[in-house]
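ESCALATION

Customer reports they have been waiting on this structure for their group meeting. Please prioritize. Original submission:
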Amino acid sequence: MCQIASPCLFPGNGPSGICLSYLLSGYRPYLDAVAAHPNPVLFSKLQEAKHLSIIDQARRIGHEGLEGRSSNPVAVLFDTLLHPDADFGLEFPSPLQWRLEPQTHVPHLVLGKACPGGAWHAMEGSMLTISLGIWMELPGVNYRDLTGKRRSVANDRATPEEISSYYKNYVKLKGLQKNFVDNAYVTSVLKLHRDHGEALESEAGRDDSRDHAQALEDMSSSPLVFPQGIWEVRGYQRAQDDSPVPFCLFAENVVLATGASDSPVRLAVEGEDLPFVFHSIADLGAAISKRSLGQGSDPVLIVGAGLSAADATLCAYNNSVSILHVFRKRVDDSSLIFQQLPKTLYPEYHKVYHMMCSQTHSAPAGPFPDYTSFPEHCVVSFQPDMKCILQSASDFKVFKISMALVLIGTHPNLFFLKDQGQYLGLDPSKSISCKQNPIDIHPFTFECTKEANLFAMGPLVGDNFVRFLKGGALGIASCLTKRLQKKKGSLIADGGGGVRGREGLV
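Update from on-call: job pushed to the front of the queue and completed.
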């Protein structure tokens, strides 16, 4: 039977969901009485109302005069407070002091497919993060203190294994476990209305196992009155024996914190579904581990000019696998990510960039055996006989390969929303894309402009770095806390800070 769950539910238990849970649990940032900030204008604004939490005055403080690699003003503000002058390579201590204020707690549930940490648990453990380790940390727990790492130019970046462990331990250290439901898969997020008939019509419109009479009995037996526009969240949780246990929860607010790595971007060319074409670097690692790919194999084709393609190139090259590297851009294109990375911090990526520039198909002789790059080329098709056809502006080329890795990005999979969430984007005529078409939100609350009581944060709104997604948590926490204070009687709470309706969820 469906029951009320919480004032707030959010699918996604990565750093976005963890940070928001921390703030909704009553942890609030204040200006430390003995702290300073290198930005005198910002510091002056902070001192004007130092008795107030940053959550209560983020809009007043604003972001005027602040700069950062985010288009969201709250994200830039919060990052400036957590990591002053970080973009200049400096490490000023944060002027914030964190206090636990239980009276500001907003009941919520975080639904995740695995343990807290999200997609970080599935990433290749030997790679290094682009961001420095301290930029990956969440409020209140120092990354170096928890991992035991010391600062140095050589090891300031972290491995996915270190980061996923940090996030998992963070939840335990801050006592957030009660808010997290692991092994939970959301399959539908649907807005219902106050009228029970409308709710039943929306249920009957889907292929649901319950019949109309049973749904009516469930609805009529509930003593609770649904507020206007409540959200119904359906899904299943994997039990210990791996069997799916269905759940149905209600919430007045839903936060989309699912990240951007759900689905790989495809080339949409002939033969892309053939069994030797893959879209994950993990498949390359598996083939090397199984020794089905090695020094004597036909070349592996790597498509893409981003960091995932660079990681795959390093993996194959370090295991003596021949590489054909195909990408659309010129090697001197200023938009290539390699030109934006300092050589001292990212030597391995600059090595790949040097390979891309110096050992092209037109000048294959060079210091890197078994590597050839194909700038300004695209894949025309993959053939069942393990051949691929490439096209440039002047000709076609055919190669026999052992496997192909298409690593040209990922995009979010919002299949559980109406129209896959497309109507929420800046351009409703296009699919949601973290770079080209993020979800359209109010800049200070992160509430979707096209759907009340639906919020989005992190990569879904264009904040692809952990540094900046924390600003989304601040904006959402500020909005929900104020609404709870103004409207306690209408929020679906249990009065004691606990959560009802978790039967079947462990």
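Sent to customer with the following note: The longest helix spans residues 466-486.
Escalation resolved.
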